[in-house]
Amino acid sequence: MSQEQQQIQELKKALYLPVIKEIVEGWAIGKPPLASTGKPSGYYRLSNYLLEYLLAEGSFPTGIHAMPEGVDRHNNIEPSFPVDFDQIIGERTLPELVGQ
Cα–Cα distances in Å, from 26 out to 37, 57, 72? Predict the structure, then answer.
């Protein structure tokens, strides 16, 4: 990846992160927080999945996707779980870089 492409990826990441946080915070409502993070199990996996998807595809995922299994800080396996992106994204639009 060229330096220019890396810079564009970093700009997109900065642009997408607030929207990702808003989406994942909405998903987290009503889910019990973990004592270690204060966030529900899967919060960071969903955040990372959504960021990687947006950077690769340039659009929101649609339909139901299975989040990958995870490993907590104690090396315990955290199970995969389904996420309905149509439901958690709703009517949001993806911000775009000017000139892209």
Answer: 17, 22, 22
